[in-house]
Amino acid sequence: MSSRFLPTVIITSMLRVKDLRAPSVLWLTVGGSGFLRPAPGTWGSLAGLGLWWLLLKGLSPLHQLLVVTVYSGVSWFLCERLVEQRRIKDEPQIVADEVAGLWLALVFIPSSGPWPWLALGLFRFFDIVKPGPIGWLDRNVHSGLGIMLDDLAAGLLTGLTLALAALILAWGL
Known about the structure:
Helix content is 66%, strand content 0%. It is built from 7 helices and no strands.
């Protein structure tokens, strides 16, 4: 029988809650928050905001940026390995990219008042809509780097936008 008549097998290995036993899955799903439905990216971002509030809020922007850089690097490495091992793409359960992007946004803005909540909302907007270069990165950069990069770009755009808004408000314009 010719192979052209055989069905094509597509390997999809979605992550499951039982996979949380693997430290890399626990990390990439941010303690399992990526398994919450609906909108796992929003749940992951909320988890990231909570972790930022508990662990990073009191740090200087430079120290926060250092943590974001290390966290992003570890997440990228773990994403690369998971993508290769399981032949997956950007699974919705992987939310370490949302955490990294939100944390990057929070580096640029005041840590009090409504600013962190505004960052969460604007970051989710940019992450979902994917305007301009964020969408290009999402479509053209693949594997673990692609999983991380579009969210870091959304975080950077969020942080710069809100930093500009904070400056305008401070100047009374």
